[in-house]
Amino acid sequence: MNERLQKSAGLGERQLAEIRRLEGACNEYEGLTMKLNWDLLRNRPQQLVNDFLYYRDGELTAYLALYTFNGCEAEVSAMTHPQQRRQGIFTRLLTAAAEELQKRTVTDFLFICEQASASGAACLAAIGASYDFSEYRMDLVDPARTLDLPAELQIRPAHLEDVNALAQMDAACFSMPVDERRGQLMRSLASNTRPVLIATVGPAKVGKIQLTVEADGAIYISAVCVLPEYRSRGYGKAILARTVRQLTAAQYRNISLEVATENRHALSLYEQCGFAVTTAYDYYRLPKF
To answer: Cβ distance 29 to 116 under 8 Å?
Structure first.
């Protein structure tokens, strides 16, 4: 039997196709909708190893992906072919990932596990990971819904001159480091697949929303926020509702987002804008060392 573990800085089209096939096999086996962040996989930085692929006799058997959105933790999506589990392959991938993160300042793994995956939960329990929080995935199911929205709020595409204001919004709303977020936003604005929209009231920049356009035309909505001093005026609902209206007018139909399960206010807002919960993801934390 020929086996090899490949560490990859960036992913080629062949690797992406192999990952897609493995994802399909795992999803079908347990009825899942795995979270793999496909837009990020297609645009990996070439200077960092974030992907770990395990081959057996030339076939991709298992895969682990790292996503570092901040300097203290690495989110992890991982999967092993249903016929190749319980053979220590995931442990080998995780060890290789830990060795890579040893070179960085990241301290924790944060594993993404769909609630419907009994095998995933059992695996994380076995390695000692502890439950941290959960998020709902919500899909747009009622795009025709209309809402009474504040007329003074305007939404436009963000530009490079908006980056500082956008980074300050993410710092205020999501406690994200300003400098790190500024770099991420600049890369988004340079991309055709990750547009950012900014909301204004007169000259004031009050909120934002980010979109990810997947290769199949699906849209993922993230980072919806309104600065604290402009809340309780219906602006958050207006930003989301108007964005959805524009997307559906442009014939986009597969539109989704995620929300923390304990964020009842945001959950209610998204439901009012026509979204419904379709699955849930649990996050488990494990110190790297």
So the answer is: no
What are the residue ranges of helices labelled H in 127-234? 163-174, 178-189
Separation between Cα atoms, residue 218 and residue 90, nearest integer Å:
30
pTM of the model: 0.87
Q: What is the pLDDT of residue 81?
A: 97
What are φ and ψ of residue 118, in 5° steps? Answer: -65, -35
Each residue's pLDDT tens digit, 220-271: 999 999 999 999 999 999 999 999 999 999 999 899 999 999 999 899 999 9
CB contact set of 75 (below 8 Å; sequence gap of 6+) = 66, 67, 68, 69, 110, 111, 112, 283
Q: How do beta strands 275-287 and 130-140 pair? A: antiparallel
The CATH class, in words, for 3-136 is: alpha beta
142-273: CATH topology is Aminopeptidase (3.40.630)
> Phi/psi zone of residue 202: left (φ > 0), alpha (ψ -120 to 50 degrees), beta?
left
**Region(s) of the chain under CATH 3.40.630.30:** 3-136, 142-273
